[in-house]
């Protein structure tokens, strides 16, 4: 008996029950597939790291140091844990004999050079990291070392005027000036500017135009400190200086079946990126913050902010006014050839 005849003979309630049962079974199967894929390829689980695994780990750890070097109030001797992790993964990379001219590997070496230079200029001794840097430079060899940009800066400097004027430039220039800003001026943000940016982001495409997103605008200082304290994307002075925090969510209630399990993240990610561009366009400084939290942390943030259980937390975005002078990490990008493959 085919599906059409079954739908005629069986009551709608029974048909819907059967459909839900099938969806749940397939959903579990898809989750298991996702589990296998992630546990097989993610660098946090693999026993023998691949070239891509190590490039990602190198970037993760050197960017942590890079952010510290761009701090307007640099604390000498900072980042000991991140430095140890970076040195360890650089050793892994070297032992695997992966390409010496890889941009991310060389960026990490440059970050170490900048770290040592900063401390030497301030008469602060960092012998162990200096020794590890020497080992890496010896491994690179004289020719490759000469090619490196020894005056590479781990950060870029902008003026507020440059950033504000960039919103009226061609889109490629607009993109280059949209940077993650972690240090803000003490000037208050007009909530109408945030609302205008959200209004612009609403034009983001979504599956079947369902628009499942929601934005929680946190203005209360204590609530911001509690929520960001759980999220842990900003630490120390940078966290205490945040006066506006946005939390983007998507409501799972807007999605249909097992095959749409990734749509909350796709639609929420698209909306978040549009919102970041819109905030930049409105002359506001912003920083997208990671959402790598445990289930316990997710529940705690939902409790603090009073977010419905059906919503998935997609992104935290800190927002503020630009200072007159900005210092942001260089955040070196790979080249086009690293991303594009024609078939």
Task: Please describe what this structure looks like.
It is a single chain. With 343 residues, this protein is an alpha+beta fold. The chain has two domains: 51-153, Serine Threonine Protein Phosphatase 5, Tetratricopeptide repeat; 157-327, 3-Layer(aba) Sandwich (NADH Oxidase). 53% of the residues lie in helices and 11% in strands. The protein contains 13 helices and six strands. It has helices spanning 3-9, 12-41, 51-69, 80-95, 103-121, 127-147, 160-166, 171-176, 191-201, 221-231, 237-240, 263-281, 295-305, and strands at residues 155-159, 213-218, 244-251, 285-289, 311-320, 325-329. Strands 2-3-5-4 form a four-stranded antiparallel β-sheet, with helices on both faces. Strands 1-6 form a two-stranded antiparallel sheet. The mean pLDDT is 90.
Write the layout of secondary structure elements.
Elements: H1 3-9, H2 12-41, H3 51-69, H4 80-95, H5 103-121, H6 127-147, E1 155-159, H7 160-166, H8 171-176, H9 191-201, E2 213-218, H10 221-231, H11 237-240, E3 244-251, H12 263-281, E4 285-289, H13 295-305, E5 311-320, E6 325-329
Antiparallel strand pairs: 1-6, 2-3, 3-5, 4-5
Instruction: Provide the CATH top-level class of the largest domain.
Output: Alpha Beta
Domain count: 2
Might you state the CATH topology name of the largest domain?
Answer: NADH Oxidase
Globally, the shape reads globular
CATH fourth-tier homologous superfamily of the largest domain? NADH Oxidase
Indicate the proportion of strand residues.
5-15%
Order of helices and strands: HHHHHHEHHHEHHEHEHEE
Mean pLDDT: 90
Percentage of residues in helical conformation: 40-55%
Tally of separate helices: 13
Uncertain parts: none
CATH architecture of the largest domain: 3-Layer(aba) Sandwich
Helix/strand class: alpha+beta
State the distance separating the first and last CA atoms.
43 Å
């Amino acid at each position: 008996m085919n599906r059409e005849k079954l739908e005629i003979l069986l009551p709608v309630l029974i048909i819907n029950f059967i459909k839900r049962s099938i969806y749940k079974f397939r959903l579990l199967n898809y989750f298991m597939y996702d589990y296998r894929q992630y546990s097989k390829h993610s660098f946090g689980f693999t026993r023998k790291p691949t070239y891509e695994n190590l490039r990602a780990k190198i970037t993760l750890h050197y960017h942590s140091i890079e952010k510290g070097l761009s701090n307007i109030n640099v604390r000498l001797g900072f980042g000991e844990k991140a430095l140890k992790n970076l040195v360890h993964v650089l050793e892994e990379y070297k032992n695997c004999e992966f390409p010496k001219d890889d941009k991310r590997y060389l960026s990490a070496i440059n970050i170490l050079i900048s770290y040592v230079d900063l401390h030497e200029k301030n008469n602060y001794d960092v012998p162990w990291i200096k020794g590890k840097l020497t080992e890496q430079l010896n491994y690179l060899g004289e020719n490759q070392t000469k090619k490196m940009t020894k005056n590479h800066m781990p950060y870029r400097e902008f003026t507020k005027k440059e950033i504000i004027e960039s919103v009226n430039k061609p889109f490629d220039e607009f993109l280059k000036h949209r940077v993650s800003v972690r240090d803000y001026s003490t000037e208050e943000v007009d909530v109408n500017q945030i609302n205008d940016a959200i209004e612009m982001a609403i034009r983001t495409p979504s599956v079947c135009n369902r628009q499942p997103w929601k934005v929680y605008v946190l203005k209360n200082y204590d609530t911001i400190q509690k929520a960001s304290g759980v999220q842990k994307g900003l630490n120390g002075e940078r966290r205490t200086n945040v006066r506006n925090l946005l939390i983007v969510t998507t409501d799972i209630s807007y999605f249909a079946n097992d095959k749409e399990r990734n749509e909350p993240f796709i639609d929420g990610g698209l909306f978040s990126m549009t919102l970041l561009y819109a905030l930049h366009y409105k002359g506001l400084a912003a920083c997208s913050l990671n959402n790598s939290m445990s289930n316990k942390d997710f529940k705690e943030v939902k409790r603090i902010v009073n977010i419905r259980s059906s919503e998935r937390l997609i992104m935290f975005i800190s927002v503020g006014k630009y200072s007159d002078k900005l210092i942001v990490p260089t955040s070196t990008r790979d080249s086009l050839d690293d991303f594009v493959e024609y078939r």
